[in-house]
Design goal:
The chain is mainly alpha-helical. The chain has a single domain, classed as Monooxygenase, CATH 1.20.1280. The protein is built from four helices and no strands. It has helices at 3-16, 20-29, 37-57, 60-85.
């Protein structure tokens, strides 16, 4: 595997997993007072565009990593809305 692909995979893993600590913290504390739903919505829109871009470019690293990030982001959005109601 080429160095450039390894750099892309590493960057993708770090970026895609960036919301996991926030999500885990929300679940532990059962609260989302400090989480901005607007930020999560904008991030989700950006991830959707990255996924589409990856399909257009046939770059599966971009598609897979941003799809994973979108799933984590969507779960964080759902948890945020749930905890803001309770």
């Amino acid at each position: 595997m080429e160095t450039i692909s390894l750099i892309g995979i590493g960057a993708s893993i770090l970026t895609a997993s960036s919301l996991i600590p926030q999500f885990v913290k929300m679940l532990r504390e059962r609260g989302s007072e400090q989480v901005s739903i607007l930020m999560l919505t904008l991030l989700l829109a950006g991830l959707a565009l990255w996924i589409y871009y990856g399909f257009l470019q046939k770059d599966w690293i971009i598609v897979v990593s941003n799809s994973f990030a979108a799933v984590v982001n969507l779960a964080t959005c759902v948890a945020t809305l749930y905890f803001k109601r309770t």
